[in-house]
Each structure stands twice: as C-alpha cells, then as structure tokens.
Design brief:
- With 231 residues, the chain is mainly α.
- It has 10 helices and no strands.
- It is elongated.
- 24% of the residues are buried.
- The model is unreliable at 224-231 (pLDDT under 50).
- Keywords: Membrane, Transmembrane, Transmembrane helix.
- The chain crosses the membrane at residues 6-22.
C-alpha cells in the first residue's frame, strides 16, 4: 500500500513540479516583457513632452498616442496580476489627449528653440521618437507605409529645430552688423529645409528663408551712392 502511494507521489512530483516551474518562468518572462514595454511607453511620453508642437505635427502626435494606447491594451493583464505600472494606468489620459488633438481642442505650444541646450534636448527627444517609430512595424504590425510617412515628418522636425536656432543666431548677427555671418546661417538653414522638400510645410519655410537671404544680400551688396556714381 505504502509502496503504491509512494509511486503515485513520485509520479505526481515528476509531472507537476516541472509544470509549476514552467508556469513560474513564463510568468516571470511575461512580467519582464510588460515591464520593458511600460518603461518604453513612459520614455516615449517623456520625449513627446520635450518637443514643442511647432516641430511635431498633430497627426504624428495622434499616431504615437494611438500606438501607446494599443500597447496598454496588450499589457492590461498587468493590472489583473496586481502589477504596478504608471504607464498602464494612464490609458484614460492618453485617450483623452488623442481625442482632444483629433478635435483640435488641445492647447498647443509653438515655442521655438532659443539656445543650444534647448536644441540638444529637443534633438535627443526626436532621435528617440525616430528609433521607436522605426521599430513599430516589427513589434506591433503597424503599416510600414504609415511609419515611413511619420519618420519623414520627424526628420523634418529635426531639421526645423536646427533651422530655428540658425535663424535666431543670424538675427543676432544682423543686430551686431555681422551681415556675412548672418547670410551664411540663413543659407545653412535653407539647405537643411531643402533636404526635406517632400514635406508640404517645407515649401512655406523655403519661401521665408529665401526672402531673408535676399534681404541680407541687398544689405550686404548694395553700393553706396559715392561708389555707384560714374566719374
């Protein structure tokens, strides 16, 4: 009798213990994955907060927010497992933000970068968003054509950041009668925008920069009356 019981216990132990170990390992792997996704979600939101609405289009912000909402849906099991995640708990906030953006109800900030520190901070945030958007098709099945469109807009945003600082510096050069330096900066800004000519809004920026360049060239190359007078 005891022998039979011992055999049964042994068989149960051999079959159940590996299963319990497998379940524990699966749970640990799942929680690590969800933790990683939550951290990435928080980092994306932090990056969005650092970028002025002048640089990110409304459509791109909505696209990123919709992606984050879908990520939360994937990891919503964490709440059932009593797993704390500030990112997952922000789902309602993200839905509200995306809705307000879609309806044009969210207050926007069009602040331009004013110094090198702000440029570096904004550039770092945009580079992070580029990296995250680039891998969306592999991880979440997002359409590659849609992703390419938003990558293009983020790259243009990066060029626009540099353009704004160059224009600001050029105006300072003009205030200090450094016309040649100002002209060089305006031309550099124009070159950056022209590299992103496929973006519709770049056309308006090119027109503005060309006018700035023409105005400085007029100041720089105009002849004094005494110089233009024929002897």
């Amino acid at each position: 009798m005891w022998i039979v019981f011992g055999v049964i216990v042994f068989i149960v132990g051999v079959s159940v213990l590996p299963f319990l170990k497998w379940r524990r390992e699966q749970k640990e792997r799942r929680e690590k994955l969800f933790s990683r996704l939550s951290k990435r979600g928080d980092n994306i939101l932090n990056a969005l907060d650092k970028v002025s609405d002048r640089y990110l289009t409304r459509d791109t912000k909505i696209f990123i927010l919709d992606h984050l909402i879908s990520v939360i849906s994937v990891i919503s099991e964490l709440i059932k497992a009593n797993y704390e995640s500030s990112f997952v708990l922000r789902k309602e906030e993200l839905v509200r933000m995306a809705t307000e953006l879609s309806l044009g109800q969210q207050v926007t900030s069009k602040d331009m970068v004013a110094n090198q520190e702000q440029l570096d901070q904004t550039n770092e945030a945009l580079e992070y968003l580029l990296k995250e958007v680039r891998i969306m098709p592999d991880n979440f099945g997002v359409s590659r054509s849609v992703v390419r469109h938003h990558l293009l807009l983020i790259r243009y945003a990066n060029a626009l950041v540099y353009r704004d600082l160059l224009v600001r510096q050029a105006r300072q050069d003009l205030d200090n009668d450094r016309k040649s330096q100002a002209l060089e900066k305006y031309r550099d800004a124009l070159a950056l925008i022209e590299k992103n000519g496929s973006v519709a809004s770049s056309k308006r920026e090119k027109v503005r920069l060309k006018k700035m360049i023409k105005d400085v060239e007029t100041l720089l190359f105009k002849k004094e009356p005494s110089e233009s007078r024929v002897e």
